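Annex B, item 7. Sequence and structure tokens for protein A, then protein B.
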Amino acid sequence: MPDWLHAGVWGLVAGGALVLGAAIAWLVKVPVRAIATIMAFGAGVLISALSFELIDEAARSGGLLSTAIGFLGGACIYVAANVALARYGARHRKRSQDQQPGEGDSPGSGAAIAIGALLDGVPESVVLGLSLLHGGEIGLAVVAAVFISNVPEGLSSAAGMKRAGRSVWYVFGVWGGIALVSGVSALVGYLTLQSASPATIAVITAIAAGAILAMVADTMIPEAFERAHMFTGLITTIGFLSAFAIERLAE
């Protein structure tokens, strides 16, 4: 299989975890505390992947200054877009309870939530494509982190959408579309940066990492803490350690 197609397939697999999470939420009434627990675990997994797979590699190949600039830039871009979308009803798009507005409560919120979900997923997919550029092999720890974190993201958000009265066509249209975009993003990320310099790849990796960390802090941890409360830190730590162990065992 060509590497560009390989990247696209892994992006689609990782994005498919969102659809899996949404399907579980739609078909099964998952306890709120269970959703929070899985969300906290997924947050820890992502933070670990950012630390050991993305930022560390970016700093090694592109230097500390360019990595820091890219990392902060990615966070600023994500936060600015998130603030704009919040004004149209997408602030609580990953919340599983009654925080998400219905279309009648906030006209246009359906589109804003869909765009926000896309905003959350694209940086992760680009990172998957970029990981193939480092030695020609997909980073197992990155794939595991994105997949493990995407299941609770899709689960929590879809549960909130269902409670807000969104239709099954809307819910699975959103997550199915994002799964496809995830595959395309990983593929395009690989193709467009195939001949890029290590410094350029490092900066783009850092930008994606900054956006992912901002997403974890803004959308995943609040949902986890609201229900898991004092256990959130412990569960997140277990997720972090699990991803770290996968990364070390994959070496």
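Protein B:
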Amino acid sequence: MADPLEPLTRLPGVAADADAVREALTRVHNHRANRRGWPSTAAEASVRAARASASLDGGSAELPAEGPVTDPVLAGSLRVAEALGGLLAAWRSAPRQALARLHVLAAADLPGITDDDLGRPRRDPGVGERLDALAGLVTGGTGVPAPVLVAVVHGELLALAPFPAATGVVARAAARLTAVGTGLDPKGLAVPEVGHYRAAGEYGEAAAAFATGDPEGLARWFAHCAQAWQVGAREGLGIADAAGG
């Protein structure tokens, strides 16, 4: 059976960008501070990712000096970040269940969201079928380089917007799970969300271009994601440098 994503690897720049992302992440994982002390650097990367992701969805990126987080977008993003490790097995075997859980965590405090909305995809025609197709890719339906699959998961969820809210937080978390699950960033040391945040305008435009399905739009999205992951790798190196070693 033909690999449904293989044609994407022949788009201009995609293969080279995938190699660049892998090389950047290898440097992060080889940093001395990440050889034994990676749980602490991964925890810091997770918090930074949650803050940047919340900001991209219109929430606050600021953690209060004391007391609980009151911004509902940031609170949801932090809950998602904390839960990712426990969702990895589900993501590998039952991605739709993992997505539902991500949405529950991300959207629980958002205004206008009811219990009936949480974790339940829209019933519009085609939504379920596209989620099933995406789940098939995540569970072994493609052999493309991991950076390409990560970008497809991220872009497809942004384009499909399967849930009534928290689309961005869920999509970025799913991309992060894919990076961990494929071994691209197995310890979650990079912070690509910072890369997306620093190029927020291009992030939105490139995501819209991906949604068209045109080759130029797809290539633009992959180029943006590759750049964001390389920025995220540098952010991870900065975290490791600060940790010492």
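Comment on protein B: The two ends are 47 Å apart (CA to CA).
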